């Protein structure tokens, strides 16, 4: 059972500890520094925070004493020669069907470490980090050293191996709006899933490209976007161009994957070989950012519905959580304990987590809510936190 | 020897550089920064990006002149020069 809730916020890392008297926050850590993701490695208890220094670049910070002291980890860096094809924001006259202009290249610089994921128990020291621009970095020594996964970086969907020359294929990875803060429009990896049955079997999700799978430990990657639909491209069922906001899998039933996408909620019960749209816009389940899957029952998941992309806030001024227990065939809207008037929160992609019967989510309005009964009822843990980017049980 | 002055903000991460006059051998800006990094390991990662260029939101100056070569850091720092490390007002 989780004993800790870690928050990545606009102004630092916030840790809530569970005590006999309930959940209590510590004074903020990394004070003043944006923290886009914070999590606890369940294997050895190491705490991790992804710092997003405005001036000094992004850094990983690590604590091996439950957050009492922290240390900078050697910066994750792209190797010499790592290039990418430059993406540009679509302009009003953007024509997605127009022939691709001459590719422009840029040296890759790590702008954001968007998610940290932990390897299985039988791979101690194995860590993963997803970045903007879309690189997957792997460490085998607990984060002291990191290496870019080149097969994914050099994937044919990104133009091929740009270490050795110019593009040999079209780049179909598009930028994510989350990169605009850095003055670029580049893709990012925000979801990393490791199959607990097979350490060589991983998924990553990319904004904006879609889901990719490897079954050989990252030596080769295949798109897994069959059944996905995007409403903003000429071919809604194209292989690439999808905008997963967050993808997760049931750790106990890893063939069950869930995706909150820009264009709805999608579910797969066959290891992402195909996806099925399970949105129910009539009850508000369609747009949003985070999604959480039950560890035991792959058919159970939770989302936090939001008013569609033009507004990006709580629907009709009230917060709710939607839960399905039947693979998305039906959804229950859960509101007990959540504010239902004059509420405009939005919960970002890493802002919801589940651990056993407990769920917790935090909003960019600085509100934090906890449920200890699988979402049936909620209590407010805090109201005046900085904007919350991530919530993870530890 | 050239002197290096920097925003107080960096002392938070490298307290060993605070409350002292930092002097390093004359040389290129790259060599000056390396010398500071030798005093405070990891310092360069805060100033330079993955490929050794000055980070977008960092400004370097030699006396009153901004450093011109932000990519390979070849500007030369003389014995009586001061190198300044600023936070640019463009971000953060």
Tally of helical runs of chain A? 1
Structural class of chain B: alpha+beta
Fraction of residues in helix of chain A:
under 10%
Return the string of H and E elements of chain B: EHEEHHEEEE
CATH architecture grouping of chain B: Roll
Describe the structure in your own words:
The complex is a heterodimer of chains A (394) and B (92). The mean pLDDT of chain A is 94. In chain A, 1% of the residues lie in helices and 35% in strands. A four-stranded antiparallel beta sheet of chain A has the order 3-2-1-30, with no helix packed on it. Chain A starts with a strand and ends with a strand. Chain A is an all-beta fold and 394 residues long. Chain B is an alpha+beta fold. Chain B has a single domain, classed as Beta-grasp domain (Ubiquitin-like (UB roll)), CATH 3.10.20. Helix content of chain B is 23%, strand content 25%. In chain B, the strands form two sheets. A five-stranded mixed beta sheet of chain B has the order 2-1-7-4-5. Chain B has a two-stranded antiparallel ribbon with strand order 3-6. The mean pLDDT of chain B is 94. The interface between A and B is medium-sized, with 18 and 18 residues.
Short description:
The complex is a heterodimer of chains A (about 400) and B (about 90). Chain A has about 400 residues and is mainly β.
Features:
heterodimer, A: 394 residues, mainly beta, four-stranded antiparallel sheet, 1 helix, B: 92 residues, alpha+beta, Ubiquitin-like (UB roll), five-stranded mixed sheet, two-stranded antiparallel ribbon, 3 helices, 23% helix
What's the SSE blueprint?
The complex is a heterodimer of chains A (394) and B (92).
Chain A: E1 4-9, E2 12-19, E3 22-25, E4 35-40, E5 47-53, E6 57-63, E7 71-72, E8 83-85, E9 105-107, E10 112-118, E11 127-132, E12 136-139, E13 147-148, H1 150-153, E14 188-194, E15 202-207, E16 210-214, E17 222-223, E18 244-249, E19 257-261, E20 264-268, E21 276-277, E22 291-293, E23 301-303, E24 321-324, E25 332-334, E26 352-355, E27 358-362, E28 368-371, E29 379-382, E30 388-393
Antiparallel strand pairs in A: 1-2, 1-30, 2-3, 4-5, 5-6, 6-7, 8-9, 10-11, 11-12, 12-13, 14-15, 15-16, 16-17, 18-19, 19-20, 20-21, 22-23, 23-24, 24-25, 26-27, 27-28, 28-29
Chain B: E1 3-6, H1 9-13, E2 22-23, E3 27-28, H2 29-39, H3 43-47, E4 58-62, E5 65-66, E6 76-77, E7 82-87
């Amino acid at each position: 059972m989780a004993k800790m809730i870690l928050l990545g916020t606009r102004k630092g890392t916030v840790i809530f500890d569970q005590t006999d008297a309930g959940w209590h926050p510590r004074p903020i850590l990394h004070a003043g520094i944006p923290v886009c993701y914070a999590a606890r490695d369940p294997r050895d208890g190491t705490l991790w925070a992804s710092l997003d220094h405005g001036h000094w670049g992004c850094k990983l910070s690590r604590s091996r004493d439950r957050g009492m002291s922290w240390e900078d980890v050697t910066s994750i860096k792209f190797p010499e020669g790592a290039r990418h094809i430059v993406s540009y924001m679509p302009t009003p006259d953007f024509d997605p069907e127009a022939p691709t202009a001459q590719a422009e290249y840029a040296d890759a610089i790590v702008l954001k470490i968007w998610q940290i994921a932990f390897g299985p128990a039988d791979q101690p020291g194995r860590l993963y980090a997803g970045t903007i621009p879309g690189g997957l970095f792997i460490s085998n020594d607990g984060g002291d050293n990191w290496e870019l996964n080149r097969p994914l970086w050099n994937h044919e969907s990104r133009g091929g191996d740009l270490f050795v020359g110019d593009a040999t294929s079209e780049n179909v990875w598009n930028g994510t709006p989350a990169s605009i803060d850095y003055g670029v429009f580049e893709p990012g990896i925000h979801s990393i899933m490791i199959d607990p049955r097979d350490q060589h079997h991983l998924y990553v999700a990319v904004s904006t490209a879609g889901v990719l799978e490897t079954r050989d430990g990252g030596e080769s990657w295949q798109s897994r976007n069959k059944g996905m639909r995007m409403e903003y491209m000429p071919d809604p069922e194209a292989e690439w161009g999808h905008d997963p906001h967050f993808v997760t899998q049931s750790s106990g039933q890893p063939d069950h994957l869930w995706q909150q996408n820009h264009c709805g909620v999608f579910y797969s019960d066959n290891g992402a070989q195909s996806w099925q749209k399970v949105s129910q816009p009539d009850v508000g389940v369609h747009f949003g950012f985070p999604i959480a899957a039950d560890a035991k029952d792959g058919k159970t998941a939770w989302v936090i519905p939001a008013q569609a992309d033009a507004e990006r806030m709580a629907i009709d001024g009230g917060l709710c959580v939607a839960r399905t227990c039947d693979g998305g065939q039906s959804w229950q809207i859960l509101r007990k304990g959540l504010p239902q008037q004059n509420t405009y929160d939005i919960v970002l992609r890493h802002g919801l987590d589940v651990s056993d019967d407990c769920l917790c989510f935090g909003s960019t309005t600085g509100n934090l809510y906890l449920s200890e009964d699988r979402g049936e009822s909620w209590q407010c843990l805090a109201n005046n936190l900085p904007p919350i980017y991530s919530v993870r049980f530890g | 020897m050239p002197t290096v002055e920097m925003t107080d903000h960096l002392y938070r991460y490298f307290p060993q550089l605070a409350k002292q006059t930092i002097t390093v051998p004359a040389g290129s800006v790259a060599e000056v920064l390396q010398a500071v990094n030798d005093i405070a390991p990891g310092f360069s990662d805060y100033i330079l990006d993955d490929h050794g260029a000055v980070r977008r939101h960092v400004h370097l100056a030699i006396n009153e002149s901004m450093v011109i070569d932000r990519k390979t850091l070849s500007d030369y720092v003389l014995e009586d020069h001061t190198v300044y490390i600023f936070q640019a007002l463009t971000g953060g």
